[in-house]
Amino acid sequence: MYKFKSKATADLIMLAPNGDQVLSLIGKAPAAQGIIDVADLPAAIDALTRAVEAEEAGSGGKDEAETDEPAKASTDSVSLRRRAWPMIEMMKRSLAEKQPVVWGV
Known about the structure:
The protein is an alpha+beta fold. The chain has one domain (2-60, 77-103). The chain is 43% helix and 12% strand. Strand 1 and strand 2 form a beta hairpin. Helix 2 (41-58) packs antiparallel against helix 3. It is globular, with a radius of gyration of 14 Å. Mean pLDDT is 87; it is low at 64-75. Residues 52-78 are annotated as: Disordered.
């Protein structure tokens, strides 16, 4: 489990597989502790945004709520957009207030 922290926002908790995915997408190795420095936040925001857009382009842009098919019971039924949105918002607010995002501390 990951608990992402920033002085600019409330804490964000993610299950390990989701946190690992987000960290990998922004170029960070999944680890028990880490930091996204203020200088790295714009690239991290861009990387997550591009990953969301790529996933949606591959699925025809439909979210699971927009389909007629029932959602799968697995974690794959939640779109990357829904998983990544809280992290993107945290990073945007942290960037605006010039605060790093940390975890495991």
